[in-house]
From TrEMBL:
Domain Protein kinase: 19-308
Group of enzyme by EC: transferase
A Gene Ontology BP annotation from the UniProt entry: signal transduction
GO molecular function list: ATP binding; protein serine/threonine kinase activity
Organism: Caenorhabditis elegans
Pfam families recorded: Pkinase (PF00069)
One GO cellular component term: nucleus
Protein name: non-specific serine/threonine protein kinase
SUPFAM superfamilies xrefs: Protein kinase-like (PK-like)
InterPro entries: CK1_Ser-Thr_kinase (IPR050235), Kinase-like_dom_sf (IPR011009), Prot_kinase_dom (IPR000719), Ser/Thr_kinase_AS (IPR008271)
Keywords, in A-Z order: Kinase, Serine/threonine-protein kinase, Transferase
EC number: 2.7.11.1
Amino acid sequence: MTAAPTIIQLSNGDRVNRFTVFKKLGEGTFGAVYAVRDDAGAEHALKAELATEKIPLLKLELYVMQKLSMKGPKHMATLIDKGRHENFNYIVMKFLGKSLQDAKKTGPDGHLTLGSAIGASIQCLEALEELHWCGFLHRDVKPGNFCLGRAELGELRKIFVLDFGLCRKFVDDRNVMLQPRRKAPYRGTPRYAPIASHNRAEHGRKDDVESWFYMLVDFTNAALPWKVVNEIPQVGEMKKNSRFDPLVTQLLAGCPVDEYRLIMNHIDGLSFFMEPNYGLIYSTLKRLMQTRNIQEFPYDWEAEYAVK
């Protein structure tokens, strides 16, 4: 077993070069995130990691962000600064708002209305497409890894992708796809992980999109059949069986069944090397909104998260 990373603990008022900590935003398996102010008073988010960490996830995250930045992405938090301070490395990025893990509960019955569910999901898929275009897989697609912009900046309708610490490059320097490993470690969060994770198979682009599809369904009905199951093997079996009745009916309860099944069938029909047809998915969802006269805006969370 790999030892858990040492979490860098900072206190309010601590200085990290030109940044001053004023709040701890969160702490996960891979480190802590702090809200900081620069000397001009602008607010940002700072991620820190021990410089001697054997598996430096922050270094990977920085590498991915730098590559993405070169493409002018719509859905990545701007990289402000990077450096080393005392015994840790850090990156500073745009300070974002609530995660979709929180925002997805702001609609009626603990899930989003259809317009908000589809609108948010389209933005999340755009974010993944940007990442794939740069040659990276995310491998931990879940609502907690997407954030809204901040109300103070008028960005409550904009969604950003976060946490590139589990990313993996799927192409070489000549942009040729790498061969999959025969066996790969489990990656992802059980509720949203693709079937490939349960099979200990290598992730491809299709697997990020499969995880995205589970988010789309979750945003729509908050009733993924395996959400009540704790054992990972059982979760995997339920996902495999959710392609057929009776479980597929339970999976898509309260969803636009024809459109969601079309998207699921497209994803399931992809092989490891095939590129998902993002355009097909966008057009299917946008056409659904047009034919049903579904309004995307305002998003369900806007009233609750507006500047008071």
